[in-house]
Amino acid sequence: MALIVQKYGGTSLMDTARIKNVANRIKLYHEQGHQLVVVLSAMGHTTDYLVEMASEVSSEPGKREMDMLLSTGEQVSIALMAMALDELGVPALSFTGGQVGILTDDRHTEARIHSISVERVRPHLDEHKVCIVAGFQGVDQHSNITTLGRGGSDTSAVALAVALGARECEIYTDVDGVYTTDPNKVADARKIDRLSYEEMLEMARLGAGVLHSRSVEMASKNNMVIHVRSSFNNAQGTLVVPEDEVMEQVVVRGVSLKTDEARIAVVDIPDRPGLAADLFSRLAEAQVNVDMIVQSTGKDQKNTISFTVTEKTLNDSRRIVEAWLRDLESGSYEVDEEIAIVSAVGIGMKSHSGIAARMFQALANVGINIEMISTSEIKISVVVSMDDGRGALQAVHEAFELGKAS
Amino acid sequence: MALIVQKYGGTSLMDTARIKNVANRIKLYHEQGHQLVVVLSAMGHTTDYLVEMASEVSSEPGKREMDMLLSTGEQVSIALMAMALDELGVPALSFTGGQVGILTDDRHTEARIHSISVERVRPHLDEHKVCIVAGFQGVDQHSNITTLGRGGSDTSAVALAVALGARECEIYTDVDGVYTTDPNKVADARKIDRLSYEEMLEMARLGAGVLHSRSVEMASKNNMVIHVRSSFNNAQGTLVVPEDEVMEQVVVRGVSLKTDEARIAVVDIPDRPGLAADLFSRLAEAQVNVDMIVQSTGKDQKNTISFTVTEKTLNDSRRIVEAWLRDLESGSYEVDEEIAIVSAVGIGMKSHSGIAARMFQALANVGINIEMISTSEIKISVVVSMDDGRGALQAVHEAFELGKAS
């Protein structure tokens, strides 16, 4: 008997048949006597459909109205789920973000949660009713509807779990948990049983799409256990827990491959303080997310700065770099789109030396050339050529014995 | 320069192209300097689609959750309209029923408006922004979302017009206004320029679908002028106004035909006080709407009660009548489904005598037999056989010179 928050994503709610499946799962928990708060995303492709309509009436839809529009998706899900549960004899009530007291700032489409007032749901939980809450949404201090941006429903779920003092927050998705690497790319990939918030954060940033960074940050700050698992079976998934609860201390927890980035190398620029700061401020202002940055100074006191950006923002980045070089009146730049970034993440790196060397050796053994290196306390990333991406991922996965056979 | 409330129904909002059309119309008003509050229904078939999904997850969806579900339809409309207006350079903001302070009782799916607090929209109107409000919905005192039942968006619009002290409430629909009779049934039908609330109420009850009774009642109570007009052209529509503002005093304003009713005749029952009251209470409890009622007492002190009900409720009605007769231990009943009801409505009847006679004579002239008669201060209804329905409608329409040629 515990208070549990569960979150179900869009693929678990693709149609009314899947909604009924999820309702059956919730029923089992309810019968075990648990108090349940269930957070839902919009059904399947609802959001795409709404965005499409918005684009038909406006070339640049306002953010406040976009939130008004998109928040209906989750509202449809919660109403249907409450009906489906009621049909199974499970008493349930649905709540919008505003009704459950999720108060946010007023940054529409990417709002942050300020506070949650759980007085509205607590009495219903005590009466053993299932409370179904619309994820992804809240209201600002003037009751305007806001949304929390990408992965917002995960954040809603963790925030509610924290506010209610839940035992854990279960995030249901269409995969069995967090894997050592993408199983579509490395057949040998293994599901991870437990990992720390820090590891999950790095892996989320690297595109392990199962959890959004903000939800992990919030869980980390409040020591809320997240259980990532599949809504299509009953298998135990992956527990994301405080570092000291990670039993099995491995050096590298997972490896990842990104192929949607491009490298920009700016060469022959003066070695003056503040130059790099100026460049990266300009990129940040234009919402360009820079991933790896490497700078080196040659003997002639001329600088080279290399960095990677997503291909989506490459055109913006080119424009900014060109303007910056014009202002500098020196230097030039090159772009390489045919790159791949392979990263290894593990909290064990903190206390183990030689991890980077082991990774580089593994790549050398299979004849893969490293073009760029960047390391942090719990992550090592290397840039290799696009063609070498898969091979590099495989080699690093094996080198750290992450496969099933290990 | 006036404050005007406009309401657009689902057919005016069938798709994003029509939403853009309506936005253009609103823009014209805005450019003329009017303050505008625009009330919207759900787009085209949205509600049907949502109801269909509800029926897929539940055999009997709860009313609270139904309101949570259906209210998303209007929310989508208002967000898209605000975007479409913004795209045209017209500043606009959308509001849900709750946000605009439409407080209702808690009778889900058929709530009544208690109060409206217009403080939320007033400042935006003063800044010359168009306020787009979701029709059909409100919230109860616990912030649960409620809906106002059939025709609810008309009621929202009139209530807002009253609360804001608007000059008039324009109800946009897919016809040019209120007609003397259904143009699909009588080619000669003519658009009415002005009619009184009482006349509109009677005609609405008779199925002149352009306005819902509750909205007319509310307008009547507050002397709010309703302008029923088409969203597909700029023609002047029909003004619904206080009785003393109806210039042209005609005897009969319009005539109608209903063919979806059945007549139940209960015969050979004792002439005892309270018997009829008992029968009609039972019918009311079962939500059976009784239209015409005629009672007559024969020489033998035996009573006959005839009444009409819609065919939808005929089975319920049969059951109730049978149970009532069992309790009485006397009498029997007959049902005639092959009937039509022809009604004439006009405030002029109050001051003119001989209207009923003129109507009966018109029917006699074309050889139509009257099976049942019921009159009120401003309405005369007759039951004829189903086959005679169209002919009767035509004859009465001509008798009162309602056609275009007149």
Characterise this structure.
Two copies of one chain form a homodimer. Chain A has eleven helices and 20 strands. The two termini of chain A are 37 Å apart. In chain A, 34% of the residues lie in helices and 27% in strands. Chain A has 406 residues and is an alpha/beta fold. The first copy, chain A, has a domain at 3-174: Acetylglutamate kinase-like (Carbamate kinase), CATH 3.40.1160.10. Chain A has an eight-stranded mixed β-sheet, sandwiched between helices. The first copy, chain A, is globular and about 75 Å long.
Brief rundown of the structure:
Chain A has 406 residues and is α/β, with parallel strands linked by helices.
Tags for this model:
homodimer; 406 residues; alpha/beta; Carbamate kinase; 4-stranded antiparallel β-sheet; 20 strands; 27% strand; globular
Report the total helices of chain A.
Answer: 11
Structural class of chain A comes to alpha/beta
**Strand order, largest beta sheet of chain A:** 3-6-2-1-9-11-12-10
The helicity of chain A comes to 25-40%
What's the β-strand tally of chain A? 20
The backbone outline of chain A, from C-alpha atoms, is: globular
Beta strand % of chain A: 25-35%
Largest interface: A-B, 41 and 40 residues
Rg of chain A (CA only): 23 Å
Average pLDDT over all residues of chain A: 92
Biggest sheet record of chain A: 8 strands, mixed
Instruction: State the name of the first-level CATH class of the domain at 3-174 in chain A.
Output: Alpha Beta
> What oligomerization state is this entry in?
homodimer
